[in-house]
Amino acid sequence: MTEHAMPVHPFYAYCQTALQEIEQQGRYRRFTSLSRRSAHYPVYDKGNLPQQDKPVIVWSSNDYLGMGVDPEVMNAAITAVQEYGAGAGGTRNIAGTHPLHVALEAELADLHGKEAGLLFVSGYVSNQASLQTILTSMSGGWITFSDQQNHASMIAGIKGAKGSDCVIFKHNDLQDLEEKLAAAPASAPKLIAFESVYSMDGDIADIGAICALARKYNALTYLDEVHAVGLYGAQGGGVSERDNVADQVDIIEGTLAKGFGVHGGYVTAKKEIIEYLRLAASGFIFTTSLPPSIIAPALASIRLVRQQNWRREKLFERVHTFQNKLKDADIPFLKTESHIVPVMIEGAERCKEVSRRLLEEYFLYATPINYPTVPKGAERLRLTPNPFHTNEMMDEMVTALKALL
């Protein structure tokens, strides 16, 4: 070692070993660089393929309605940059609150039939910050009843709340939930945290029944509608709007990055809850706010989606058409009532190999989903048909899957 050489910290060796283990387990994830053609969604370019001029059809985007490339939405972003600049300029408390933030929060509250809304920099942060803040209030002692398949952001918020307990109930199992609620101390503050559409299996929670249990056992309800906003309900308010139970849910969380095609997260609730989160959630207070160049297109997108039901109708027509094509070709997939179509391919290495060959040989991009996102043996390609996938595109994917499976 030279006189000024830094000693090698043990963490470097730890990282090398951990990476080798992840690689051996088939869990090493590599990015696929894709460039979306805004005028031809879901067509993308991928520059490092052997045939660089051949476009790629993407089948795993979370821009479910293609709102991120809608001309009105894009023009709203361009106008906002020209008028207000590229960044927000500060946190919401320090020069970072624009009239557009106020308008968007009001729009989101109205969408879900709530008194108020609060924007966060992402859906992950909105879940983590909101749940952690709620569950550390009232001197702690909360008991959270969390669905077995809740998103990592919800789990992070629940685990980060010191002094609270978490009880995990079986996925979408109302009987198990009630048994656990009944066994809890009656005096303890309780919260039920769950999702509407679960993104890997595409199944949907019985929101009304869960809310009924919450009333029976005096529990607060926290609903993640991230994979449902924009897509379900008469105006895109999510499954809670579709099922006419939004008024029974205490807190509805959502994203601007999927059905609405832009970026950011939010929560909506009664004004007292939103005000408390605004003044107490560190994940909100100490983060630079979303810039007007994001807020403006998000607001434009929501207003379009609320007004134009044809987008939702077209989405589900495409989903059902694709499911029928898979069924006719005897390709194994999970048939659900949601817009998510998981094509089952057991084995992490096999799943990744099919995904690789789809891209390199057929120029079709489908994300492989492996452990720990799903249990071992439940690997799949997560496909999300959108209103712009044509019959010809669907036939290409079915033909390719038939050849590779």
Structural account:
Pathway: Porphyrin-containing compound metabolism; protoporphyrin-IX biosynthesis; 5-aminolevulinate from glycine: step 1/1. Its EC number is 2.3.1.37. The protein is α/β, with parallel strands linked by helices and 405 residues long. It folds into two domains: 26-58 and 309-404, Aspartate Aminotransferase, domain 1 (Alpha-Beta Complex); 71-307, 3-Layer(aba) Sandwich (Aspartate Aminotransferase, domain 2). Helix content is 41%, strand content 14%. The strands form three sheets. Strands 4-10-9-8-7-5-6 form a seven-stranded mixed β-sheet, with helices on both faces. It has a four-stranded mixed β-sheet with strand order 1-2-3-12. The model has no long low-confidence stretch (mean pLDDT 95).
Mean pLDDT: 95
Order of helices and strands: HEEEHHEHEHEHEHEHEEHHHHEHEEEH
**How much strand content do the residues show?**
5-15%
User: How are the strands of the biggest sheet laid out side by side?
Assistant: 4-10-9-8-7-5-6
How many E strands? 14
Question: Over the alpha carbons, how many angstroms does the gyration radius reach?
Answer: 22 Å
Which structural category do the helix and sheet elements fall into? alpha/beta
What's the assembly state of these chains? single chain
Global outline? globular
Low-confidence stretches: none
Biggest sheet record: 7 strands, mixed
At the fold tier of CATH, the topology name of the largest domain is Aspartate Aminotransferase, domain 2
N-end to C-end Cα span: 54 Å
